[in-house]
Each structure stands twice: as structure tokens, then as C-alpha cells.
Amino acid sequence: MCFKKCANTFLSREITPDEDVCINNCVQKYIYTNHKIMEIFMEVQPKMVHKRMEEINMAQTALEAQDQQIKVEQNLQ
Q1: Residue 63 banded pLDDT, cuts 50, 70, 90
Q2: Does the structure show a pLDDT above 90 at 20?
Q3: How far is CA 12 from CA 2, 5, 15, 18, 64, in A?
Q4: Cα separation of the two ends of the chain
Q5: 63, CA 20 to 30 Å: which among 15, 69, 74, 77?
Q6: How far is it, in rounded angstroms, from Cα 41 to Cα 21?
Q7: Cβ contacts of residue 55 below 8 Å, gap of 6+?
Q8: pLDDT tens-digit series, residues 33-50
């Protein structure tokens, strides 16, 4: 992405000062964006894990209740 935007000429092996500034600005933008995404992920991820744990606990409770019901029915026979 930054290469396409910032590489203006291929006449020299060296990076021009303008290309250098452009590349630094472009890369900084993507690094900043990545940090923001990670910041949000770190904020949301524990909530997602907590919600998933609650779902697992509810499913486990339902399975235990079902198992208990089967045992009661087997004892009645």
C-alpha cells in the first residue's frame, strides 16, 4: 500500500527525500491504526470471553439437569 503510494520513480536505487517522508507518514498511519485496533480488541476481548464462559456454564448446567432427570427416570422404572 505505502509502496504504491510513495514510490514515484524507479530511475535510482536510492529513496528520494520525498519518498522517505511519504513512506514514514504512511507507515506511521498504519501503525497508529493497528494500535487503535489492538486497544479496542483488548477492551472488548475480556467481555467476549466472559460472555462465552457464561454460555458454557449455562450449557453445562442444562446438561447436568438433563442427566439428573434421566437418572431419576431410570430409578423410577
Answers
A1: very high
A2: yes
A3: 18, 17, 8, 13, 72
A4: 71
A5: 77
A6: 30
A7: none
A8: 999 999 999 999 999 999
How far, CA to CA in Å, does 42 sit from each of 20, 36, 51, 53? 32, 10, 15, 17
| Residue among 75, 58, 24 nearest 5 (CA) | 24
pLDDT score of 72: 87
| Cell numbers given for 65 | 439437569
Cell of 62: 442444562
Give the integer Cα–Cα distance in Å for 52 and 34: 25
Q: Give the Cα separation of 57 and 51 in Å (integer).
A: 10
pLDDT at 74 over 90: no
User: Is 47 in a helix, a strand, or coil?
Assistant: helix
